[in-house]
Design a protein that fits this description.
The complex is a heterodimer.
Chain A (H helix, E strand, L loop, with lengths): L1 H14 L3 H23 L2 H17 L10 H27 L6 H7 L3 H9 L1 H16 L3 H12 L4 H8 L3 H19 L7
Helix pairs in contact in A: 1-2, 2-3, 2-4, 3-4, 4-8, 8-10, 9-10
Chain B lengths: L1 H20 L12 H18 L1 H9 L2 H5 L3 H16 L4 H7 L1
The chains are: A mainly alpha, B mainly alpha.
Chain lengths: ~200, ~100
């Protein structure tokens, strides 16, 4: 309660560039920012570094912060940009190393009659391969689509919350989600006839 | 309308598949990040100082320690100069030329 009462003062002090106010806000919001980033990048170690990177950007932009507005929402927007930038660079690195799974083996085993397909799905090796291919297809999504897909499909965040964090409209979230789903379905192809 | 329902169904199936395939994330931060943040801020400030040596020189020049180390006759010389400039303001361009 005391913190809530102090908050406007702390926000004004932060906007004026005071390090102590920044430390107070950092300690108060680091968990929330980390939680948001880890949902997007899905890598705890990277999320820790990106949380620091987010607060570094926040500190540098203190003069642009309006103390009458929500610090949490502002921090979340910056965190989303940092996470998407990370996904873009990580993706470029992954493309260079490019690990691809054998295309034919599983699709051949899953193609054909439903009974054979059902048998293949029960096989632990095939299950593992299905999982790996799903992960790979997800990782290969363009960064902006991947962020929306992670938040909407895996974390089940409301579209309005995603829109606010990414600073885009709800319609844009739906459009990105639609494109992500289509790309994933194309990539996963024969893995599941229901998709 | 039918197509919309179909898309929603497919989206749900895909979501279920992704949730099964991707390991759940622990959203709890297990350590304090402030020391790391401080290191980052210190590195940033050091880089700014290195990029702007002029600013560093000015900071040293106007620090209380630097001012107290100036000998008294230098202050006297400066005072004479200021008084001279006040009495003969037309000498300012000459001083500027020599500087």
């Amino acid at each position: 309660m005391e913190l809530l009462e102090q908050r406007p003062k702390v926000l004004a002090q932060f906007a004026a560039g005071e390090l102590e106010a920044f430390e107070t806000l950092f300690r108060q919001f680091q968990q929330e920012v980390y939680g948001w980033i880890v949902r997007i990048v899905r890598d705890p170690a990277a999320a820790e570094d990106l949380t620091v990177e987010t607060f570094w950007r926040i500190y540098r932009a203190h003069a642009r912060f309006d103390p009458d507005r929500s610090f949490g929402a502002w921090a979340r927007r910056i965190a989303s940009n940092v996470a998407i930038d990370y996904l873009k660079t990580a993706q470029a690195r992954e493309t260079q190393l490019s690990v691809s799974l054998p295309e034919e083996s599983m699709q051949a085993s899953l193609a054909g009659d439903p009974a054979r397909q059902h048998g293949a799905i029960q096989n632990p090796a095939i299950q593992r391969e299905v999982r790996e291919r799903t992960q790979l297809a997800f990782q290969q999504l363009p960064a902006k689509l991947r962020a929306v897909a992670a938040l909407a499909l895996i974390e089940e965040c409301p579209h309005s919350e995603i829109a606010e964090a990414l600073n885009i409209s709800t319609a844009a979230v739906k459009s990105r989600l639609f494109r992500a789903v289509r790309l994933l379905r194309n990539k996963l192809g024969n893995l599941d006839s229901s998709l | 309308m039918n197509e919309k329902l179909m898309n929603e169904k497919k989206e749900k199936q895909l979501a279920a598949r992704l949730q099964q395939s991707l390991t759940p994330m622990d959203r709890e931060l297990n350590r304090e990040l402030w020391p790391q943040m401080l290191r980052r801020l210190n590195i940033d400030e050091r880089e700014i100082d290195e990029r702007a040596p002029g600013r560093q020189w000015l900071a040293v020049l106007f620090s209380p320690a630097a001012l107290s180390s100036v000998p008294w006759f230098d202050w006297a010389l400066l005072a004479v100069l200021v008084v001279g400039v006040c009495i003969f303001p037309k000498s300012i361009p000459i001083w500027l030329y020599h500087l």
